[in-house]
Every structure is written in structure tokens, then in C-alpha cells.
Amino acid sequence: MKLSKEQILEACNKMCKNTLMETLQIEFIDVTENTVVAKMPVNSRVHQPDGVLHGGASVALAESVGSAGAFIFLNEEDVTIRGIEISANHIKSIKEGEVFAHASIVHKGRTTQLWQIRIENHQKELISLVKLTTLTLRR
């Protein structure tokens, strides 16, 4: 059974309850055939001591959206997704507003997947560029 875009987004947001994603206020907002998009507010909750977005919060956002994408695109119920490698380049700082993580699949294997995640501000300026490799574990 193929789920609608709205059903997929609802399921992604529901799985965030009582997790780091809820703590960071990550919200999944779009899904297409090849991408998943989530947003996160930038405020004191995700700041480093000097008042800008913490790189660790950006990486958590990127891994969350890429891992969700791997699960969605595999379209299998009995799998668990794990991030096994992540690297991030932080390009621009941001103090307030929101950031948007656009995860695009680069390699869609049955066991491993490679994702590129662009984290941008409202003006579509690049904040961070992240590469994530995920592993599919069969339950």
C-alpha cells in the first residue's frame, strides 16, 4: 500500500515524540520521490555559547532527516536504519530563525544508502553541507 505524502509526513513527525528530534523541535515538512525536508528553529535551545547555531544540532538534524529518508525510500516495515558515517562542513552561521534540511539520496542500496543533506536558511543560503551513510539492519 502506497502512503500519501501527508501520511508519510505525519508518520515521520509522530516518530519524533520523546526523542532528540522532539527536543530540537525538528519537524518534517516535505517528501518527494528523491528528497525529504525537515525544519528546525534556531534559538537558544540549539545555540553554542556564543549565540549561533551549534554544529552538533545541525548534524543531529541532518542525520534525522537522512535516516528518515532511508526508511521511507526502502519502503520496508521490518528494518532499522543506523547512521554509520557522517561528515559536515559548516559554511555560514545563523543566530535566529529556522533552518531547513534537504536530504537527497545519492546511492539507494538495499544495505547502505548515501545521502547529501543541504542545511539552508530562509534565503536558501547554505549553512551546512552534510554527507551521511546509513546502514539497513533487517529485524
From TrEMBL:
Transmembrane segments annotated in the record for this chain: none
EC number: 3.1.2.-
Protein name: PaaI family thioesterase
SUPFAM superfamilies for the chain: Thioesterase/thiol ester dehydrase-isomerase
Domain Thioesterase: 51-126
Keyword annotations from UniProtKB, A to Z: Hydrolase
Domain of life: Bacteria
Annotated signal sequence range: none
MF annotations from Gene Ontology: hydrolase activity
Family in the record: Belongs to the thioesterase PaaI family.
CDD domains assigned: PaaI_thioesterase
Pfam families with a match to the protein in the record: 4HBT (PF03061)
